[in-house]
Amino acid sequence: MPDIASIIDFTSRKTSDIIADLKQKSVKVTDWSKLLKDYEPTKHKIVSDTTSLKDKIRSDGTLEPSARITIGLEKLLVKRISEFTFAIPVKRVYTNTENNQTRLDIAKALEAIYKNARIDAENLKRGVSYYAACEVFTLWYAVKKPNTLYGFESEYKLKCKTYSPMDGTRLYPLFDELGDMLAMSFEYTKTIGKQTTTYFETYTADRHYIWKQDLQGGEWTVVTAKVSDDGETVNGEEIIILKIPGVYACRPVPVYHGLTGLRSEIEYTLSRNSNVIAYNSAPVLKISGGIKGQEDKGEARRIFRVENGGDVAYVSWQQAIEALKYHVDTMLKLYWMQAQIPDISFENMKGLGNIGFDARQTMLTDAHLKIGDEAGTWIEFLERECNVIKAFLKAMCQKSHKNWLNEIDNVSVEHVITPFIQNDELSEINKRMKANGGKPIESHLESIQKYGQSDDAQATLDQINKEEEQSAQTKASAFSMSNSMI
User: Fold this and answer.
1) Within this chain, do residues 196 and 151 fall inside the same structural domain, yes or no?
2) Long-range contact set of residues 10-14: C-beta below 8 Å, sequence gap at least 24
3) Does residue 317 lie within any of the structural domains?
4) Of 70, 78, 205, 423, which one's alpha carbon is 20 to 30 angstroms from that of 270?
């Protein structure tokens, strides 16, 4: 594969050829337009199927549409596996900071960057995009805004934005033979008034390029081209961190790959049964023998007169509901079993009762194993992202904290993904107290702070100590008085 400089060569290549080469995707990912047909319930096959589920035309010419019940199991599966991955926020463990205040301050600055970028909410969003659309790209960028959010005076605020096919962005990563990213490009459209413009952006290790196309199939023009002081045209913007300011992750197929048939079978089964119920919902009157005269409609009764020992009765419809229920339940069980995610709907959970923490862990074993399979890609993704943030931090602290520059890379960051499980604080406290011989594991002040009902935890603790001291003095006075009376 040629290097990126030979691809983005404005002197000898046409712009259309440059963009065509940048669109040569280096990874195999299923196109989102195909996945959307399974992910979005309104686009399921059953919605437009008029062969298996035929609409009826009544005698008066009106159309009676067939029942078409859609079930968004794919969307629900993506949501649940994303929540199992990131509902408990990713924990970052900073090491190699012992007895070094500079590194401790760097760790606090890194954590402040994550917090102010609202990384926990971003992770949930990225999880949905990755599991459903198979790829996601998060771009980090600096906005000039003086602040002290990161523990030092900074002229810039660091933010991030996630792109995925789900929001209409087409991603084009370009890797070399060893798997190193040469360029990251993405294409999107903007509509202002009646004018729709297509943009194509490319990030390399040292430049950022933006092209635009006003008409479909028209010529591309460079947006980021500038004229230097000596009169030369400079294409692209400089990237001062000297690396692509973003991270990309992909998978060949979505998490619901291979499960569409089960979901479709459930939809068709329920829809056909709904048609049968609708057809048999009107009562059927069976009359044996001839009828004499007309029906006598009294105020409180209806009378039929029949001949020759005839009879009048309603025909009741008997449906084999147990067979239908067994079929649908089996399909659902197979769906969640193959997805390795338990069906944690309210209907299933309400029958468990107040089970213990260990029982809940056992119940979610399959889901935790599934997240363990997925965690490797996420850990690699988060570590690359941390390196991008460190590069930005180096650029941001050059004026105020030059002593940080040689220490930032020495701060090690480990990302820990904890699969979701309902917290059992009492169980955790008991476990920790047993580990340290039954001694307390937090101070009185920390306990008040975690409770969260006091506006000033220290003032509350001081008041508690004062009241305890007064109570002790009162008891001591009463004890002295009782001794003097003996």
Assistant:
1) yes
2) 10/222, 10/235
3) no
4) 78
Amino acid 424: pLDDT = 56
Model pLDDT for residues 72-127, shown as the tens digit of each residue:
999 999 999 999 999 999 999 999 998 899 999 999 999 999 999 999 999 999 99
* Count of C-beta atoms within a 10 Å radius of residue 173: 21
Q: Residues 25, 118: contact at Cβ < 8 Å?
A: no
Are the beta carbons of 250 and 27 closer than 8 angstroms? Answer: yes
DSSP 156-192: EEEEEEEE-GGGTPEEEEEE-TTS-EEEEEEEEEEEE
Same domain, 405 and 455: no
Q: Are residues 100 and 176 located together in one domain of the fold?
A: yes
Q: Residue 443, class by beta-carbon neighbours within 10 Å (0-12 exposed, 13-18 middle, 19+ buried)?
A: exposed
Phi, psi of 82 (to 5 degrees): -65, -40
Q: Is the dihedral of CA 464, 468, 469, 474 positive or negative?
A: positive
Under 8 Å between Cβ of 171 and 165: yes
Q: Which residues contact 212 (CB under 8 A, 6 or more apart)?
A: 197, 198, 199, 200, 220, 221, 223
Which pLDDT score is estimated for 86? 96
CA 135 to chain centre: 13
Domain count, the chain: 2
Please check whether residues 48 and 143 belong to one and the same domain.
yes
CA distance 260 to 254: 11
The mean-pLDDT minimum among 30-34, 95-99, 351-355, 363-367 falls in 351-355
Read off the tokens for 177.
Answer: 């033979």
- CA pair distance 325, 135, nearest whole angstrom: 37
CB 107 within 8 A of CB 386: no
Maximum CA pair distance of the chain?
A: 115
* In-domain check, residue 328: no
Q: Evaluate the CA torsion angle 358, 432, 379, 250 in order and state its sign.
A: positive
Q: What is the mean pLDDT of the chain?
A: 87
Same structural domain, 410 and 454: no
Partners of residue 135 on adjacent β-strands: 250
- Chain segment 301-317, per-residue pLDDT in tens: 667 777 777 777 777 77
* 329 is a domain residue: no
CB 310 within 8 Å of CB 287: yes
Same domain, 66 and 104: yes
Sequence-distant (6+) residues with CB within 8 A of 30 are: 134, 252, 253, 254
* Residue 438 confidence (pLDDT): 78
Range of the domain at 131: 4-256+369-416
The burial of 106, by beta-carbon neighbours within 10 Å (0-12 exposed, 13-18 middle, 19 or more buried), is given as buried
